[in-house]
Amino acid sequence: MSDLLWTLSQLDIRAAIDIALVALVFWGLLHLIQRTQAVQLLRGVVLVVLAAAVLTSVFRLTAFSWLMGKAVPALLLAVPVIFQPELRRALERLGRAGAFANRQGAEPLFRQVIRQVARASALLSDRRHGALIVLERETGLQEYVDTGVRVDAALTTELLLTIFFPNTALHDGAVIVRGDRVVAAGCVLPLATGTAVDYRLGTRHRAALGLTEQTDAVVVVVSEETGIISVVHNGRMIRRLDENRLVKVLDAIYLPRAVPVTRAKQLARRIKVVGNSVRSWFGRVARLLPRFNKRSS
Questions:
Q1: In this predicted model, what pLDDT tens digit does every residue of 159-190 receive, in sequence order?
Q2: Range of the domain at 165
Q3: Longest C-alpha distance within the chain, in Å?
Q4: Domains held by the chain: number
């Protein structure tokens, strides 16, 4: 205990800032992987490391200690591969910082897009015509555009109904919308591969989940079997929507005005919580230092 108090007494402002920055980095990493499969992977890695440390320190296993010593560098190299989706998502979020400022003046355009997509989805649902409509946001989808057929036409309800009419050349794929234009049709999207995906979901829904897990796109899915309309965003699905509810959901997710305000409030709350925690911790340290100095003297 005395060694710990002596160490704390040597802290200065620069050391405190250094510790706070390291803690902030770890907090950001943990926040990034929450509610993802990476949590289970991280738990497995921690359990393996702890079990190896206990075995080598208690039983003094020479061969096992040598094996773990050689395996740790390989494990560190494997971390970027294991957490590749999470790292990619983090870098994309950094790259999208400040990009919403360019979208603020385009709210009427996005409202028009929402109305056209909602109306087309309702008509497709009534006719039991399957559809997969991707609304591009800040993350570019050019690699998926290249897998389809270039259309480059103004987005209209009639165009979507024509594309997704059964047995046409482009109906069995995704339509990618950029701004107020249909960029391409018949596009191929990555399928979700997670173990938590409902086995009853069809290929369209799995493709929508797979794309939104990797990008910030918003995807509208119309089931060919049931006619159910769904919206997928950030790897999560909202199902059983009608035209009016679809407009409200897309308004909340897709319109640019809602994003910066929400994120700014969330960031402010988190910074406040972290600041209060750091202030409380340093307050406790400051109260312990006089006691330690008296005991030393």
A1: 999 999 998 999 989 999 998 999 999 999 99
A2: 102-256
A3: 89
A4: 1
